[in-house]
User: Fold this.
Amino acid sequence: MEFIEIAKVCEKVSMTRKRNEKIKIIADFLGKLRPEEVAPSTLLITGKVFSDLEQKPLEVGYVTLIKALNTKKQGTLFQRRLSILDVKKAFEEIASASGKNSRIKKESILKSLLSNASELERKYIIKNIFGEMQHGVGEGLILQAIAYAINANEEEVRKAYMFLGDIGETARVALTGGINAIRNTNLELFRPVKPMLAEMSYNFEEPLREHGGKSAVEIKFDGARVQVHKKGNKIKIYSRRLSDVTESLPDVREEVKNELKAEEAVLDGEVIAIGTEGKPLPFQELMRRFGRIKEVQKKIKEIKLKLYVFDLLYLDGRVLVDETYENRTNKLYDIVGNLSTAPRIIATNVDEIKSFFERAIREGHEGVMAKALRSNYIPGSREKKWFKLKSADTLDLVIVGADWGYGRRTGWLSDYYLAVLNEEKNQFEVVGKTFKGLTDEEFKQMTKRLQELKTRETKHTVFVRPEIVVEVAYSEIQRSPTYSSGYALRFARITRIREDKSAYDIATIKEVKRRYLEQFKYKGKIE
Ligand code: AMP
Assistant:
């Protein structure tokens, strides 16, 4: 099918504000595609280009794009109609262009792509490059459209998506295999699933109230989430973004290989960097090793890592996600050997949680996690089955723009516009601005990175593709008449750069709203 059809669908859905109509338009379109077109089309409609699993950055800078756009269009006589697969292939070539002349290579592929494109097609190619479609179609709506197209229940499609970790692949499975294929989708070895997440709690009572008076309270480590898949001697470690990070963690792999007493298993855990006395090191130290594959052996000596496991999703041929936390962890303890598990208590009153929380902070950790003993494991979900309790209020946000600094910060992009994800509309909305928290070195690096992500600029401001995620501490959330989100963070300060998170892992507007309302009830209870 021709790419213009995708552009037309995107135009159509942006014309209507009615969710049901958007769903029908997309479902109808998906139904007309050839099998091999379904996954790429789904991604191109959402402005993702590549799936989260592929994680291929396009790395098309503003200058490259402007140069390519300024090329003269070819005469219509010889113009080839672009197919969906042509566009997908061109994007793949752009992403894989590397080495010394990569910029020139990228530019020339982009030029030829754009010169074959009509005005409308160009519009959506560029929107895909910048990663924001502005047509109100988020992941949730796509899942509904898939469900509608195959006459399935949305929950079934969502569950399959959690196991597949990729919206394009979910669409492909659904449209080619129908409802049965969706129902049969399950966790498989060496196909990582999205990790289960936790809601924030502002007090020690809430977990107990939600969990029927009893919670498992574990240390919350300040590290990076990992999912370890094992079959015999084959071991792979995946990051929270589901990329394969095994090569950067050979020491962790060896430890699992030597210790784990199971033929086949999928473990959920956290890797932290530790200093001389076994104390946790700041997250930044961990990031010097995590996902880096250069000079691994040298770095192993410099930065020691420690794996803490806290969940078991699969054991010797059996998927355990529907079993309770209690059963899963019991099975986990049976097979861990000398691997470390997250220290935990089973708490039945507030004082127990409080003193365990205090111990966690004293030992240099971020806080605690309180988990319901009877809860199942829902990949990718953030619910009250797991709560996180931290000493500081932080939100993970994405940088969407930056102002040039003045005075000491002249020449640096140093005042950042921070945005949350509006899941419904699939767009990023500003909730605050800050120039606090980074070191001079980080300002310099950030300036360079942001310029590479530039989408447009004014005299004072550079607007960027939403890619760099930062953790931001704040004192309070207020209503804001100026910001598009309707909320503003007071005294925002960047506490770290979250290389391990993508723009789609950040806080949602729903979460900000919830916290805004909750702060009146609980603020100030956790010192
Ligand atoms: P946050 O990133 O603040 O939403 O907190 C959730 C993250 O805490 C998870 O994705 C894990 O990476 C991390 N974490 C640390 N310790 C634990 C634990 N014991 N159980 C679950 N997650 C943990």
Q: What stands out?
A: The first strand starts at residue 197 and ends at 200. Residues 420 and 429 are 5 Å apart (CA to CA). DSSP finds 18 helices and 20 strands in the chain. The chain has three domains: 3-183, 197-390, 394-521.
